[in-house]
Structures are given as C-alpha cells and as structure tokens.
Amino acid sequence: MTENQSKTSSAPKPAALLWTVVGGSIATVVSAFLAWTWTPAFPGNLTIYGNPAPLQLLTLVGAVLTAAHALSALGVKGLGWLTPAGSRKAVWILALGTFATTLFTAISIIVELGALVDLEPGAGVAVLASAVPAVAAYKLPDDTRKAAPAKQLPSWAEILIVVAVFALGLYVVTFGIDTDDSEPQLFIAYLILVGFSATALVKSGLTQRLSTITARNRQVTITAAIVMAIAFPFIQQSGDTYTLIAVNILIFATVALGLNIVVGLAGLLDLGYVAFLGVGAYTAALVSGATSSAFHVQFPFWAAALTGMAASLVFGVVIGAPTLRLRGDYLAIVTLGFGEIFRIAMGNLDGTSGPQITNGPNGIPNIPQLEFFGYNFGEPHTVFGIELGAYANYYLLMILIMALVVVVFSRAGNSRIGRAWVAIREDETAATAMGINGFRVKLVAFALGASLAGLAGTVQAHVNTTVVPENYVFAGPVPPNSAFLLAAVILGGMGTINGPIVGSALLFLIPAKLSFLQDYQLLGFGIALILLMRFRPEGLIANKRARLEFHENDEQPDVPEQRVSAESGVGTAKAGA
Fold first, then answer.
1. Global pTM?
2. How many CA atoms lie within 13 A of 362 on its CB side?
C-alpha cells in the first residue's frame, strides 16, 4: 500500500464526520436546557433548567441550523434544498458561528461575575459540545458546486415561501432591535450568530435560489416587504422605546439612498452630504411654526416637506455648478469644505456673528409635532385595537417616504440618465467622447440626491423636535454624519437598493446598542472598514458587476456583459469586465 493510499484510508469518511456534526449539535441543543451559571446576577438569568434564556436560545438555534445542513449533506429526504451549492462551507460556518456564540456567552459570564467557578457544568457542556461540530466540519472535503437550476414550484408554494421568508426576517430584525440595552451581551451574541448564519446561507446557495423565487414573484415580494415593514410597530410590546431606533434607521437609510445616487451611480465622492440633510431639517424647522423661528410661519407638512426638498435642491445646484467640473480627490475636498461651511454658518447665524436666523449654536428648539389632515403625529393613536405611540406614527410616515425614495432610485437608475451616470462613473472621458454631457448629468445626480436628503431632513426635524449644528458634522460617534453615510453605502454595496439600507441599519443599530463602547466606536468602525475592504470590497449586497470586478479570478455564474439586474440600479458594463 502506497503512502497516499494509507493516508486516504486513514482519513475520516465524510459521512462519519457529518454524523459527528449532527451528534455534537444535538448535544449542544440539550445543553441549552441546562443552567449555565448559578446566580441570576448575570443578565438574562441563565440559572433555570428546562427553560432556555435568550442567550441560550441563540446557541440552540445555531445548533439546529448546523444539524439541519449536515443532515441535508447526508441526503436526508426533504432537506436537500438547504444546500444547492454544496454543504461543507455552510456546515462549517454555521458550526463555527454556534461555537463562537456559545464561547462568547461563557466568557461573558466569567468576566461579568469575576471567576471561572461562576460557570455551571451546563456552560462547559455547551462549549465542548459546540466545539465538536466545528472541528468535524472543518475536516469535511470541499463539495462546492454550481447550483443546479431549481424546479419551478406551483405559484401558491412560491408565494408561501416569500411570505415565510419575510416573516422570518421581520422576527430576526425585531429580535435584534428589541434586545435590552442593559444586556449588551445578548446583542453581541445575536450579531455573531446572524453574521455567521447569513454567510452560511450565501455559501450554501440558498439565498440565490430565494432570489430567483422572489424575482419570479416580484409583486408578491414587494407587497410582503411593505406589509412586514408596516407590521413592526404593531408587534412592539415595550411602547416606543425601540420604535424610535427604527425611525432613525429609516431616516439614515433614506439619506444613504440619496447619497447612493451620487456615489454609487454617478461615482462622485461627496464628503459633505450630511449638509443637505441639515438644509432640509433647518428649512422645516423655520417654516413649521417653531417658537424660535425667525420667520414666524407655519406651513402644513406637505408644504414644509416640499420647501425642505427645494432648499436642498437649490443648495445642491449652487454647490455643484461651480465644483462638478472637478474630479476625484479635488471634488471630495470641495464637498468636505461645503459640509463644514454649512455647519459653521448655521452656528454663526445667531444675531451676533451674523443675521438672527438659526439661533446659532443653540439651534431651533420646540419644533411642533406634525399634523397631517388633523392627524397629530405627537399623540398615541389606537389602530385595530393596538395603541401606537408617537414614534410609531413617524415610523409609518418614514416607511412611505422610504418607498417613494426607492421608486425614485430604481426608476432613475434604469432610465437613460441612469445609464449615463454609470457611464460617467466607469470612464468619464470615454462617456464624454460618446456624446454624454458629463457636467449636466453629474449636476442632475447631485441635485436629485440633495433633494432626497432634504426630504428626510424635514422628518428628522420633527422627530427630534430640535435642530442644532452639532448634528451635521463630517465624522463623529453618532450617525448620521457624512463619514457614516458614505460608509453605509460602501458597506451595503454601491449602486444597489438593498445595500445602503442594510448598511445604514447596521451602522446605526450597533452604536445604539453598544453605547458602553462609545469611546472605542470609531476605532472599531475603522477596523471594520479595513476588514471589509480586504475581504469583501464590493459590499455586503453587491451587484453582479462589482463581484466580477473585485473577484475576477473566482468562478462566477454566467452574467450578461452588457446589462446587469435592473434592481441593482446600474446599466452598461465596464469595458473589459
């Protein structure tokens, strides 16, 4: 027997490794029903047998997902759909995520309570049991393959799948937002498990199949997305505490989508974009009847919103007209200067350093609540027997505005001018030689992006009931600011619709939930961006061209070279891609 044959015969069989993964996962599930510590002093009370706490539930869910994917790899009937593109990577990532979540919880108990003896045997069993699938899955041979086209299911079955996916997504998002701020361990463990699970679903090919199903049922998908988004405030049990976070995420995401037109489609690096949000907010504050307003007028909301958009659009044109002939770093420097000039100017219009318009550094307080056709947004209302607080009213309003912005972005990106934006982004010299008026096209992108930011600013002014210059800086620990807005677009995926929304949610939710790390937020933010640029420069939700450009040596599915998915918001392909 040769040396290679000896090594092959001594290597564990894939089936044996998969059954080891299943056995370790079952042991991990059992461990979730044991006590992990002896005292309820640790947040979440992990002392009860037979009743898993939320932290233990995360471990349990991770173990169940790992076992399900391992059984799919073993060919168990009814589970083959879980791994259409191969099982090894998905099983290993899920097992590693479960182990990381469990180990983090155990370490948190030791750190919080101060000693290793504060761990009950159940925690040790959980850590050891979750380590077994991770090690076994790592030894599995790679079985990555190109996913075969899925058989088209009956229309009713595909509709049920779409609804189930969005319902599950709503539950997962709500779980993260609703985690108690006094229990940061739960939110961190949640992030760990969700991050690993999302990566595993991509590697298994399941997300690609779900995308195919949603593309075939576009109207149902859009309807389900809107219904699930509207349902969020109705399932809140703690009033407006977490609805306010959702409102701010939607405002942040709306502004990021506007910036995505400028950066993602037109390729213009804008480092002062938050100023347009401030223009809209200040305009709404001045015309909405605030007691400290210099104009002493009170427009209805629709008029205040249009005024805020118009003011931001004018500022976009005024700033863009003399500067958009610049390119690259020079344009970025000018826009950075505009953002700082806006903030400083708003602080100086106090009647001393300048005209009395904005009340200087004190800002404009006491902005009245919105009232739309007799519906006061500052008062709770009962809908379908459920009492909705004030922030729930603003949340539903922002859902409507977000839908409007998504439609504008999608239509603009797929229009003639949208294709011109992409051509300018890819090669402005070549686009100009082909007859595209680069200056005019870029000015339209700048103006449209500014007006969308101004629209979001009008709502932000009423939600916060005050506007101060410090809210509109280039960089700081609290979003939205220009640096975080740009990061949200890059993190999520430039030129897409879903990308900036996901990026905004992450960049707002994480600082809000991990406030105890406020002094280190910018450090963590920088490290995260470095890792992102190294391992996934195209963003979390990238369009097909971006994947091809950044991973041209990887095996890619067949992609049309002249046109990418309409939903990605981009058109003609880059030469040589």
1. 0.82
2. 10
